[in-house]
């Protein structure tokens, strides 16, 4: 990922040769022909010294357990060495007890609301360090690729290759041939977003065969008003007051596709999905005085891409409502690791200096407390004055003062010990299942986490947690999506080159939200796709989705249906790219490099330099002899290949 003044890169990867590898972070990436080095296992401090100083066969490819990868000092020593060409990390399922977070201590600190002009004493985590375990490893500028490996039989094959060929006797240097690894992960882009976007422009306008070198991060926001809104008219809606109920959809880790973001992301949007479903039946009987806009933002991990885009669109009258229609914001953050029954209501102390905003916040807090009566939840406010935690609400406050609350399981610093790391997974949330259950039985098994008070519907919550954290390809999810949307969602926001279709993750949430809040209709597939000719149906007020439906009893066929809902999706790409402000200090400017070749790795045996030179010498000698023989034969061809002619008068 490229940011102004930085050349760090994080990107998705493909399956490797022999072992499933995931490239995660590099700066210059691998060379176009791949990075190659002799494999060495890092298990002790002596191994580290061997790689950095005493080993006689550099450069090295380092295979390490996660215990060394988790140590910032070790990774910095490898980064600053010229003897390292790549790293492969074996990832366990559980994290270190002391915690590990490769993110910053102050996430999104430069694109939130607090600055020199707004609550300067609260900026840069001066009051509360939200992520005290953050070491910033994900933002370091590595000159070599780093792959992650599963601890399985294929990883053991790599270890065996190393033990058979790369371990000397009695501490001596190993003899050739040696086990080596080659990593392929070459990228187009370098330096910064401004540079790569300028190169894109040159390619698009002056090249006969244009080829982009990077793409902005982005996807789509998913949103659904509780009461339908006419989407054909943009901007202000008269007599419409809206409460935005928000959460984020994306997460990250050092390794993009091992970013389950269980506590950091999944607990929040699963809670909002469950709340939207619960409110549907309640509001059908008693419509609320204000509309509620359930909103799922994409790209929030990377400087609030989704929320900044929605606020921008509201300001420019490009969204279904504008900022004047927004009454307040209620955001659900990390809510899965509560201590006891407490959930904390965070508010902004700066906007509350306005008497009107403060009164509305007090009313909002009181209403929230009343709404959880009898649910076993204790909503409390932090005991000290502090800024808002990293949250989408901050982007709304950058536009104007709004009353709002951010719900979270932490009073001050994050309870999450593995924020934005590979260890923020199902096991960390205690989403576990008895070993004797089948996948279908696990889907219906209500875990202790799903029984917690924040879960409005234990059965549906357990199905969603199972689907998002354990097995996406399950019968419940398959029954609620379209046939073409069966895929593996990732929490990394990624890029969408055409920006015409949401990612699998976004589509899945879109379909789930539609099923949980919508109504099944009698429309067939054709009329579902175009209901304009149907009485009492309106594409201006509703969206229509054709879903696969459940599998019929005793049959492989399904019972598809059309669901009508208010669910929509709109573009979540930073306004900086529309404004061409690639060095913006206001909006996110994250981009991802295009990849020059497939991303893969292979292991092989490498011979000694002496043997390689001998082989080269013999090859050259054979070539020269071949040339001499060819020249001799060519020069004597008439003599060597001539045939004796018979006299023309000879008869038989």
TrEMBL record:
What are the entry keywords?
Answer: Glycoprotein, Membrane, Notch signaling pathway, Signal, Transmembrane, Transmembrane helix
Q: What is its main location?
A: membrane
Q: Where is the Nicastrin small lobe domain positioned along the sequence? A: 29-189
Q: Which domain of life is it from?
A: Eukaryota
Cell compartments where the protein resides? Membrane
Annotated SUPFAM superfamilies: Zn-dependent exopeptidases
Q: How does it sit in the membrane?
A: Single-pass type I membrane protein
Q: Which InterPro entries match?
A: Ncstrn_small (IPR041084), Nicastrin (IPR008710)
Q: Which GO terms describe its biological process?
A: Notch receptor processing; Notch signaling pathway; protein processing
Q: What cellular component GO annotations does this protein have?
A: plasma membrane
Output the Gene3D superfamilies linked to this UniProt entry: Zn peptidases (3.40.630.10)
Please give the start and end residues of each transmembrane region: 613-633
UniProt-listed Pfam families:
Ncstrn_small, Nicastrin
PANTHER family assigned: NICASTRIN (PTHR21092:SF0)
Family the entry assigns: Belongs to the nicastrin family.
This chain's protein is named Nicastrin
Q: What is the source species?
A: Denticeps clupeoides
């Amino acid at each position: 990922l490229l940011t102004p003044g930085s050349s760090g890169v994080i990107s998705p990867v493909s399956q490797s040769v022999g072992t499933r590898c995931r490239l995660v972070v590099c700066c210059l990436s691998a060379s176009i022909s791949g990075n190659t080095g002799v494999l060495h296992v890092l298990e002790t401090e002596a191994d580290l010294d061997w790689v950095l100083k005493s080993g006689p066969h550099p450069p090295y490819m380092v295979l390490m357990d996660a215990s060394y990868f988790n140590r910032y000092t070790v990774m910095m020593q490898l980064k600053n060495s010229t003897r390292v060409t790549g790293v492969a990390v074996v990832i366990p399922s559980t994290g270190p007890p002391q915690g590990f977070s490769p993110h910053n201590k102050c996430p999104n600190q430069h694109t939130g609301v607090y600055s020199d002009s707004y609550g300067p004493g609260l900026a840069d985590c001066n009051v509360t360090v939200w992520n005290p375990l953050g070491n910033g490893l994900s933002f370091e500028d590595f000159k070599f690729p780093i792959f992650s490996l599963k601890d399985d039989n294929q990883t053991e094959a790599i270890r065996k290759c190393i033990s058979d060929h790369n371990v000397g006797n009695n501490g001596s240097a190993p003899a050739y041939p040696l086990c080596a690894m080659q990593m392929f992960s070459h990228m187009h882009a370098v330096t910064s977003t401004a540079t790569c976007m300028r190169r894109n422009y040159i390619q698009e306008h002056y090249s006969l065969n244009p080829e982009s070198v990077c793409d902005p991060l982005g996807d789509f926001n998913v949103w659904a008003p509780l009461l339908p809104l006419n989407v054909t008219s943009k901007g202000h809606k008269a007599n419409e007051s809206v409460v935005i109920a928000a959460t984020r959809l994306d997460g990250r880790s050092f390794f993009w596709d091992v970013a389950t973001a269980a506590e950091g992301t999944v607990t929040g949007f699963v809670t909002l999905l469950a709340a939207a479903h619960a409110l549907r039946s309640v509001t059908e009987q008693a419509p609320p005085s204000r509309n509620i806009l359930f909103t799922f933002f994409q790209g929030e991990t990377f400087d609030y891409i989704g929320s900044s885009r929605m606020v921008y669109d509201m300001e420019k009258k490009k969204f279904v409502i504008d900022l004047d229609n927004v009454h307040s914001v209620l955001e659900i953050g990390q809510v899965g690791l509560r201590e006891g029954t407490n959930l904390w209501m965070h508010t902004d102390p700066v906007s509350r200096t306005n008497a009107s905003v403060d009164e509305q916040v007090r009313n909002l807090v009181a209403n929230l407390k009343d709404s959880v009566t009898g649910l076993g939840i204790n909503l409390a406010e932090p005991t000290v004055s502090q800024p808002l935690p990293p949250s989408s609400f901050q982007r709304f406050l950058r536009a104007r003062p709004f009353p709002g609350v951010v719900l979270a399981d932490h009073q001050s610093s994050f309870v999450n010990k593995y924020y934005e790391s590979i260890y923020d997974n199902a096991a960390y949330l205690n989403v576990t299942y008895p070993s004797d259950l089948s996948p279908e039985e696990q889907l219906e098994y209500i875990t202790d986490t799903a029984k917690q008070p924040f879960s409005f519907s234990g059965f549906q919550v357990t199905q969603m947690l199972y689907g998002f954290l354990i097995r996406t390809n399950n019968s419940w999810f398959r029954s609620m999506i379209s046939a073409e949307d069966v895929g593996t969602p990732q929490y990394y926001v990624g890029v969408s080159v055409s920006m015409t279709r949401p990612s699998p993750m976004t589509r899945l949430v879109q379909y789930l939200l539609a099923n949980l809040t919508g109504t099944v209709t009698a429309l067939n597939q054709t009329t579902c796709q175009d209901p304009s000719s149907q009485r009492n149906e309106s594409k201006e007020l509703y969206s229509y989705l054709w879903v696969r439906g459940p599998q019929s009893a005793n049959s492989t066929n399904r019972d598809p249906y059309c669901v009508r809902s208010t669910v929509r999706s709109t573009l979540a790409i930073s306004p900086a790219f529309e404004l061409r402000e690639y060095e913006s200090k206001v909006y996110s400017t994250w981009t991802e490099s295009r990849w020059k070749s497939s991303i893969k790795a292979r292991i092989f045996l490498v011979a000694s330099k002496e043997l390689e030179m001998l082989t080269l010498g013999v090859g050259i000698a054979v070539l020269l002899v071949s040339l001499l023989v060819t020249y001799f034969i060519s020069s004597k061809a008439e003599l060597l290949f001539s045939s004796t002619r018979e006299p023309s008068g000879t008869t038989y």
